[in-house]
User: Fold 3-oxo-tetronate kinase from Devosia litorisediminis.
Amino acid sequence: MLLGAIADDLTGATDLSLMLARNGMKTVQVIGVPEEGADFGDAEAVVVALKSRTIPADQAVAMALASALVLRAAGTEQFLFKYCSTFDSTDAGNIGPVAEALMDLLDVPIAIACPAFPAAGRSVYQGHLFVGSSLLSDSAMRDHPLTPMRDPNLVRVLQAQCAARVGLLPLDIVSAGAEVINAVLHKAQQAGFRLMIADAVRDADLRVLGKALAGARLITGGSGIAMGLPENFRLQGRIGSAAVPEKMAAPAGKSVILAGSCSEATRGQVDEAIAAGRPALKIVPADVAAGSQTVSDVANWVLANTDAGPALVYSSDEPDAVRAVQDKLGKDEAGLLVEHLLANLAVILRDNGFSRFIVAGGETSGAVVAALGVSSLRIGPEIAPGVPWTRSVGGPDLALALKSGNFGAPDFFQTAWDLLQD
Ligand SMILES: Nc1ncnc2c1ncn2[C@@H]1O[C@H](COP(=O)(O)OP(=O)(O)OP(=O)(O)O)[C@@H](O)[C@H]1O
Ligand SMILES: O=C(O)[C@@H](O)C(=O)CO
Assistant:
């Protein structure tokens, strides 16, 4: 096993798995901390999908370390800690604490941190993260329900989460090539830095970083940082050129869309689906809390509204409405209420012949897929940058598209189905 990755949420893990598979690595995605002694077959890369982005930092560290130990025992050469391309975290963590704990475990003196993913509009310049042409703090991420991002300066953001000293690997150094990058990292290490935010604004920067990191034991970043890594193994003659299929055979059964993401892209996709006439039912957290909207009401509605094509169940709402319900119910409680409802709904639907699911939102996908009893995924065709169709391996046979909240074009919920074959 060449590359072992630990992702802090499920959609982030599928995003990374797609990146590795597209660049030629036989990739397996496992859900949750793998069992001790797990056998990953002929996988060249394994991506462990955790649900640790917003849990207490000590728990996130424990899950990451447990995963790393299993991956290390399986012979992993290079480790990657994958977090969100919008650096979703709080002052308490979890990016810094997990990165530091992995560095200690793997005896790594210095590592880079780079969430850039230009295909999805995420670039890092002078340590500042941009979403499209806006600074992170001016993007819709400032109103994220769980991890509002209000500081675009990633050196400052990561430093607030870390005991380690955080520095910057600026674009002029990245552009100067692999040798210069490694020389500067070496100097930074001698000067006492342990984590370096790396600038990258184009795919070419990520590929140069990938080349420079050929021998690195641990890398941290978004899926973009993985772009250049398979090439290192290919140059050593250790991987072939496995490709991602253009279409995916899906198990027979009905289809549904579950959206628990309040991100801007998901809200646009929900609006577009409703405008296109798709049957759509809104989950209202206050009604769920009051018991006036129940999972069986919602399941019955879906069963009655699936004849004309996949129905949409969504809790996606505008930032003001989300804030209002969080003030009333509590932030974590509101989130969990919606996650539980959608997860229980998915189980009822699975038991009623549904086998094709689009799920929007990383936390939401984590809750839904855990409830469905899926333990690992095979990566299928790319629907949008960072979002593949996947098919479950073991457990119930399902086609799953797990969409990061901010990924995908407005017609995502319409077009994704075209890539499935009966
Ligand atoms: N109307 C709502 N009010 C309050 N919280 C909500 C509402 N709808 C969803 N939530 C919660 O907000 C959180 C959204 O997180 P999730 O990770 O699913 O989406 P995302 O952050 O947009 O996606 P990603 O992590 O892939 O970027 C979940 O915990 C969800 O239950
Ligand atoms: O990096 C991203 O933006 C996504 O893979 C993700 O992590 C969303 O939760």
Remarks:
- The CA atoms of residues 230 and 236 lie 10 Å apart.
- The two ends are 33 Å apart (CA to CA).
- Residues 9, 11, 144-146, 260-263, 266, 285, 315, 317, 322, 325-326, 334-335, 338-339, 361-364, 404-406 surround adenosine-5'-triphosphate (ligand 1) (CB under 6 Å).
